[in-house]
Amino acid sequence: MNKKNRFLKKATEDKIVYLEKKLKQYKSAVVAFSGGVDSTFLLDQAISALGWKRVLAVTIDSPLVPGEEVKEAAQIARKLGAEHLRMPVDVLADQKLKFNPQDRCYICKKKVYSLLVDVARKKGYKAVLDGSNADDAEVYRPGLLALKELKIDSPLMEAGLRKAEIRKVSELRGLQTWNKPAAACLASRVPYGDELKPEKLELIAEAEKFLRNLGLKKELRVRLHDNIARIEVHETEIKLLLNRRREVSYKLREMGFSYVALDLDGFRSGSMDLTDLDI
């Protein structure tokens, strides 16, 4: 066990030990790699357990993922010493997915992970691993059903590791992603039933990049409602945004939004899934 683990709670230590044993059992694996907190931690652990020659990190490059995220994932994989494959996938070619149904995540995961299974089979890897954690099992994640159907393993979830624990261990291991804000596919910014057009998704990505460049460090989302940008930021950063509201409004309207609104409830993961009662 890594000496730095002595700074962890016993319960977290036990989970890490379980994870290490579990990963060694795979012999070799393809890791679905987004470059986020969870998949970076999983990739680092997999390389440690199996050796870099037996691990392949695969990053999906689709219209639902900001291009900068794809580039960053490649950089992180190289830094970890992993073999990395960028896989372009036009998920919007699927007519069901294109119109953003409520089971969008299931459709997308089924398509993408089927491709990863095919990559693993052709290249001789024994398993395909996903970075879902124990917290994901407690919220609305329709994509988990697709993983189950395809027999994709989620070892972080199986080990019982929660996001906060993964961040802590990542920090101790010196992983650059330990405090990276949680991300989600760009489709999560669009109401169910609204067509997912590449130009819409690019506009959202551009707006969120602009907000990040203002110095916002925590989770944020630009939700698209027709031609209205509804901005969600962490409650501790609402004041920062308000102090620059004129600049933000001008820039986003220049990008193509007709109206710009700040959600006073702040950032809420999966806010598009909330009912009136939840709100």
Report the oligomer.
single chain
**Number of discrete helical segments:** 11
Q: How much helicity do the residues have?
A: 40-55%
Query: How would the global form be characterised?
Result: globular
Low-confidence segments, given as residue ranges, are: 275-279
Instruction: Compute the CA-based radius of gyration.
Output: 19 Å
Secondary-structure arrangement, i.e. CATH architecture of the largest domain: 3-Layer(aba) Sandwich
CATH class of the largest domain: Alpha Beta
Q: What is the count of distinct domains?
A: 2
Structural class: alpha/beta
Strand order of the largest sheet: 3-2-1-4
Average pLDDT: 93
The count of strands amounts to 7
How would you name the CATH homologous superfamily of the largest domain? HUPs
The proportion of residues in beta strands is 5-15%
Could you give a short account of the major beta sheet?
4 strands, parallel
The SSE order reads HEHEHEHHEHHHHEEHHE
Distance between the termini: 44 Å
Descriptive notes:
The protein has 279 residues and is of the alpha/beta class. The chain folds into two domains: 3-173, HUPs (Rossmann fold, 3-Layer(aba) Sandwich), CATH 3.40.50; 186-273, Alpha-Beta Plaits, CATH 3.30.70. Helices cover 44% and strands 13% of the residues. The protein has helices at residues 10-26, 37-50, 67-80, 95-98, 104-123, 143-149, 155-158, 163-173, 198-213, 238-243, 245-255; strands spanning 29-32, 55-61, 83-88, 127-129, 220-225, 228-233, 259-262. α3 links the parallel β2 (55-61) and β3. α1 (10-26) packs across α2. The longest helix has 20 residues, at 104-123. Residues 275-279 have low confidence and may be disordered.
